[in-house]
Amino acid sequence: MELNLYNSLKKPDDLMELLKESDISTLTLVLSYLTSDLSYVDKIRPFVKGAFDYSVNVPDDISYMIRKKLIEVLLNISNKNNSLNFKNNIKDEYLSIIMSVGVGTDVPKEYVSMMKEELDINNSSNRDIFIENIKKHKPKLNAIIIGSGLCGILAGIKLSKAGISFSIIEKNDSIGGTWYENTYPGCGVDTPNHVYAYSFEPSFHWEEFYSKRDAIYKYLKDCVKKYDLARFIRLNTKVESTIYDEDAKCWVTSVTHNGNTSVLKSNIVISAVGQLNKPAMPDITGIDKYKKPIIHTAAWDHKYNYKDKNIALIGTGASGMQVAPELAKIAKNLIIFQRTPHWIIANPNYHRKLSKGKKWVLENIPYYSRWYRLQLFWGFCDGIHASLCKDPNWKFPDRSINHTNERFRINMEKHIESIIGDDKELLDKVIPNYPPYGKRMLMDNNWFEMLKKDNVQLVTDKIKKIMNTSIATNNNSYNIDCIVAATGFNASKMIWPIKVIGKKGINLNDYWKEDNPKALLGITVPHFPNFFIMYGPNTNLAHGGSIVFHGECQIRYILGCINLLLEKNFKTMDCKKEPFEKYNSDVDVQHEKMVWTHNKVNSWYRRNGTGRITTNSPWRLVDYWNFTREPKEKDYQFS
């Protein structure tokens, strides 16, 4: 159906059929919101249980009644302009109830303000509050944004709205960051699309619930086009260094383009290079002696012919999970070398397509996409945070950390066993010995079915060395035509190799002492005035959600800082050491309570694999949202 809402309402029978393709729970949230009538959510309350499918068990008669009533309500408030004759000042207590029913559990009242902002029910644009203040000052500031990935584009959109002059420096020949660089087969998101998009720029054209790389890359290009950012972006330009000039109170950034070096001066620098942009190659004896291709998933070789080859895959994390089933379809033999197994979630939506009807409803039914996003937002984010916190009185601390975490483990083990069967040798290889969520959780990409294929072998022996054409373990040797390295990134080497020099000649890499990055809220660092970081230290979301939410929190905070400078008529603001140290101490204390510091977990979240957690945020999203709503003037020294 290509009709808009107003015209569709003229054919209620057709519209009724169309609504069958949507989630009845989400339709009910819309209906209760439009009418301020909680009786509708009360009817579905007993049937809404969980995050993967909120509406699977709602009886047909209730579903029919909800759809019919929604059409009646929309007929009364819709107009020819495809908008609503409607304004609802719904009470917070009602919103809290609607939210709680919609996600199948009680949502604490402290979430109402954040969720109202996420819903953007009255188009209040609270996340842009500093933009309006900055515009009043007619700022003459200018900024350098390093990187044109998801966060760099976001920063550009917001600075443009605020009237701040800026340039985005991008080392590649295209925008997109990790979504430009990663092109391996199967590459895609493991977060639902509808929360992996800017809150102010929803897309109604996703083909899948979990999109592949090309769709995400296109989304980012579309955003650049819509907000006219291309004219501010310098492609094929590499930032070599950015050095703070204490006398001029500005940053001097050295860039190279086509072999030529130039210097850019700015009041502000925003690093948007992120955590996952520097591929990490396997550190294995003899790898430099290997005579055949070694291909990292983040630098995929599309010219190499993988068909009928003996392929070694080193690494079984997120990229390994996605690329391996694709390689298994064409390789003569796929030999997967696994150091430690990952916990893998069975998600019925991971391979599902979005129907035309579902896409139409998302675009045309008022508030549907917002309430749907909220359901995903809770179910894949803070709804599971408590299960990642250690219960000091838990009876089985070696295998799980609390009752819910144990239930997750049991359910995932059942999923694995349902596919692997009674193959004890393989089961022993694929079931982790650490608690769920200790490492990055993976969505099942038909991994276990793949492991049962005749041309796939899972090797858990430690690799001893790599030779000219083979890989040797402690117990065997394997002749290999090419090595695929799905070994991730140097996440703790943040901003490196860019040289960042602050006040008194302090080098940021030295200040961070051997890959131990820290920042206040992951954004600012003492001695580096007007230098802001997006997707910085301790801002990765390992309990769920997407970096988009954190990115929007960070750019609001940065705009709040710029607003402070303008209102106080100062040129610079420098993070004080005391709040910086206290915040990072709080981060470390909280991490000790989390699953990522479990004694059986060794991961890229931690400094050198086993030390301090440098990448992940230990906070609930509502905590970080509150921390970053506005900067505290007392945390900064102004000049």
Task: Report strand %.
Answer: 5-15%
State mean pLDDT (0 to 100 scale). Answer: 92
Number of helices: 21
Secondary structure tally: strands: 21
Query: What's the end-to-end separation, in Å?
Result: 59 Å
The residue ranges in which pLDDT falls below 50 over 5 or more consecutive positions are: none
- The helix/strand class is alpha/beta
Task: Give helix % range.
Answer: 25-40%
- Radius of gyration equals 26 Å
Query: Main β-sheet, in a few words?
Result: 5 strands, parallel
Shape: globular
Q: Strands across the major sheet, in which order?
A: 3-2-1-7-19
Plain-language structure description:
The protein has 639 residues and is an alpha/beta fold. The strands form 6 sheets. It has a 5-stranded parallel β-sheet with strand order 3-2-1-7-19, covered by helices on one side. A 5-stranded parallel β-sheet has the order 8-17-9-10-13, with helices on one face. Strand 1, helix 9 (150-162) and strand 2 form a beta-alpha-beta unit. The longest helix has 22 residues, at 547-568. The radius of gyration is 26 Å and the shape is globular. It starts with a helix and ends with a strand. The mean pLDDT is 92.
